[in-house]
Amino acid sequence: MRRTAVTEQNVDLPRIEAAVREILLAVGEDPDREGLKDTPRRVAGAYAEAFQGMFQDPAELLGTTFDIGHQELVLVRNVPFYSMCEHHLVPFYGTAHIGYIPADEGKVTGLSKLARLVDIFAKRPQIQEQLTTQIADSMMDHLDPAGVIVVIEAEHLCMSMRGAAKPGSKTVTSAVRGALRNAVTRSEAMSLILHN
Ligand SMILES: Nc1nc2c(ncn2[C@@H]2O[C@H](COP(=O)(O)OP(=O)(O)OP(=O)(O)O)[C@@H](O)[C@H]2O)c(=O)[nH]1
Ligand SMILES: [Zn+2]
């Protein structure tokens, strides 16, 4: 399933508004009181923004490439992101580190595209492992690189503000593909990632 349009119009805002009104009623609130009367509309807009990655196409984003004959590691470190845990629909957020080695005939993309790629997959109902592998696999699919490494560190509000209630705990995930699976290359990339 591929959806390409990049607009909030793809999200059914009235449907979210109706659902938010139901939630407010269900917790015993009065959705018509002054402070809450615009809340369903605001939440619908906020959700449309939080899930806009559903309607963006990584193939299109990574479609603009160029060849600069660089076949060494390119690493973009500390890309901040906000995502929504698909189990609880509360945020998880942190930083992504994305590296790749262009192949002989491989393509190089703009650095900003890598940062935007994180958002395409972060702005969906997500789990951290899947976010990590989707970024890595999408780079493998669209840039034909020799290798890819993606490392993500995040705090999950579903673990901080509720449930296990462990604020400050960080989850780290990685996805490594192709030549970056090689122990030496991988450890070079990891030392650059950790060199904060
Ligand atoms: N693997 C993984 N788990 C996640 C992620 N985000 C949230 N979770 C976990 O998903 C699990 C859902 O567990 P359930 O037992 O179905 O839900 P729950 O009763 O709300 O669980 P608690 O959070 O332990 O209260 C929890 O352990 C969450 O910590 C993620 O990105 N990756
Ligand atoms: Zn959760």
UniProtKB/TrEMBL annotation:
Gene Ontology molecular-function annotations: GTP binding; GTP cyclohydrolase I activity; zinc ion binding
Name of protein: GTP cyclohydrolase 1
GO biological processes: one-carbon metabolic process; tetrahydrobiopterin biosynthetic process; tetrahydrofolate biosynthetic process
EC number in record: 3.5.4.16
Binding site for Zn(2+): C85, H88, C158
Higher taxonomy: Bacteria, Bacillati, Actinomycetota, Actinomycetes, Micrococcales
Keywords, sorted A to Z: GTP-binding, Hydrolase, Metal-binding, Nucleotide-binding, One-carbon metabolism, Zinc
Catalysed reactions listed for this entry: GTP + H2O = 7,8-dihydroneopterin 3'-triphosphate + formate + H(+)
InterPro entries: GTP-CH-I_C/QueF (IPR043133), GTP-CH-I_N (IPR043134), GTP_CycHdrlase_I (IPR001474), GTP_CycHdrlase_I_CS (IPR018234), GTP_CycHdrlase_I_dom (IPR020602)
Organism encoding this protein: Nesterenkonia sedimenti
Domain GTP cyclohydrolase I, chain residue ranges per copy: 16-193
Family, similarity comment: Belongs to the GTP cyclohydrolase I family.
GO cellular component: cytoplasm
